[in-house]
């Protein structure tokens, strides 16, 4: 903060009687301040003698005030400059005391983090933090956004060590994987945050509070975007779920989901299809081919290969109506006979809504499907996610045998 010098006042100039002509020499007028010998009559001389000392005193006071003000401003200004450029930054000795939560926002640089820490009294100066951070620049560059529990009045090097420790970042984060159903999201949030599941379930009923898009039709399934989140200590269940919907909207604009019409879909069907793609394969590079299979089955391209027009026959949708499938890669004959609208072995077209939260790659695959005439696919290695695609039933049968061999070699893995 800068200091302002006091502005000196203006002393009223004393009145003077007309100046005699003999005071003008060489065209210059002498200024009469009552400080020289007075050659005027006695009455005027006596009057000046009374005023002279006071005039000197006033001027002396003003001069002293000016000197004092300049000196004060100079000292304060020097202190400020030292604070900004001192080579020996002020630092706390540590180890610190109490507890304070500090947020590191997305995009924060070292100086921004330092300012947040100083404002919270974690470090004594920004310079102390940036100096300490410069010694671990590679690690500091990887500091994750989020909320960190720290002590007040820490030594700057200790503050840096806490922030770069991955364990501290993970302790303040919640990771929602691609393909999680809403009930799985709720379970993970409740376990991580300590907030009761009932509060999340209640929040899911507040479509407006969640900020769901109109085409979601009030249902959060599919719109809680899978990502890594860091929540504030005072965030509510609604705050957390709303943050996931907000992230979905951001990604939806990037894809963009508004391009659904180009694929012959509305936005809700677009996310429904993306969720099926997400659940069917693990590797992003396989997703465009799965998108092609779905389109080909919907439009009847695969009828000649024994797939009735419109029937997707996707195991992932049957697993959804079973509550997730309990890890099995197969579906039961009973489930495939269900009248549920999610049973795509019996019900033509896409199911009524998403079956999980798709990631960005699954969404983008719909807009850029392959064009190879694929009608079938099957995962042949559950560890690597390797998936084989086929145009004909015969090719698909051969690929399915590869899966069966893998399952025999990995007993208990296929359910």
UniProtKB/TrEMBL annotation:
GO terms for cellular component: plasma membrane. Residues 1-49 are annotated as: Disordered. It catalyses: a peptidoglycan chain = a peptidoglycan chain with N-acetyl-1,6-anhydromuramyl-[peptide] at the reducing end + a peptidoglycan chain with N-acetylglucosamine at the non-reducing end. This is Endolytic murein transglycosylase. It holds the Pfam family YceG. The lineage of its organism: Bacteria, Bacillati, Actinomycetota, Actinomycetes, Propionibacteriales. The gene is mltG. GO terms for molecular function: lytic endotransglycosylase activity. GO terms for biological process: cell wall organization; peptidoglycan biosynthetic process. It is found in: Cell membrane.
């Amino acid at each position: 903060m800068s200091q302002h010098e006091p502005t000196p006042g203006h002393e009223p100039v004393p009145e003077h009687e007309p100046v005699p002509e003999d005071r003008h020499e060489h065209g210059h007028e002498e200024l009469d301040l009552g400080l020289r010998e007075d050659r005027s009559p006695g009455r005027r001389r006596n009057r000046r003698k009374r005023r002279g000392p006071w005039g000197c005193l006033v001027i002396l006071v003003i001069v002293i005030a000016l000197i004092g003000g300049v000196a004060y401003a100079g000292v304060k200004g020097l202190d400020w400059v030292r604070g900004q450029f001192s080579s020996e930054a002020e630092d706390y000795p540590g180890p610190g005391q109490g507890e304070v939560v500090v947020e590191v926002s997305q995009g924060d640089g070292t100086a921004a983090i330092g300012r947040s820490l100083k404002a919270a009294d974690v470090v004594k100066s920004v310079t102390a933090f940036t100096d300490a951070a410069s010694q671990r620049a590679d690690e500091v560059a990887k500091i994750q956004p989020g909320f960190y529990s720290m002590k007040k009045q820490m030594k700057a090097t200790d503050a840096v060590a806490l922030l770069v420790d991955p364990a501290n970042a993970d302790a303040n984060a919640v990771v929602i994987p691609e393909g999680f159903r809403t009930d799985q999201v709720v379970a993970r949030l409740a376990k991580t945050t300590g907030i009761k599941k009932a509060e999340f379930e209640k929040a899911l009923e507040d479509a407006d509070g969640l900020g769901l898009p109109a085409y979601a039709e009030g249902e959060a399934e599919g719109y809680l975007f899978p990502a890594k989140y860091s929540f504030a200590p005072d965030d509510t269940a609604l705050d957390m779920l709303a943050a996931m919907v907000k992230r979905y909207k951001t990604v939806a604009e990037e894809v963009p989901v508004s391009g659904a019409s180009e694929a012959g879909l509305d936005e809700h069907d677009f996310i429904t299809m993306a969720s099926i793609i997400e659940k069917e394969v693990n590797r992003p590079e396989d997703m465009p081919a799965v998108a092609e299979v779905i389109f080909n089955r919907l439009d009847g391209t695969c009828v000649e290969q024994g797939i009735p027009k419109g029937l997707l026959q996707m195991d992932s949708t049957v697993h959804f109506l079973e509550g997730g499938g309990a890890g099995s890669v197969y579906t039961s004959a009973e489930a495939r006979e269900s009248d549920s609208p999610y049973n795509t072995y019996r019900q033509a077209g896409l199911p009524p809504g998403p079956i999980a939260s798709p990631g960005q790659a699954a969404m983008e695959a719909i807009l850029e499907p392959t064009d190879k005439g694929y009608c079938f696919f099957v995962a042949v290695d559950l560890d690597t996610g390797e998936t084989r695609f086929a145009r004909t039933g015969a090719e698909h049968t051969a690929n399915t045998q590869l899966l069966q061999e893998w399952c025999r070699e990995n007993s208990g893995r296929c359910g």
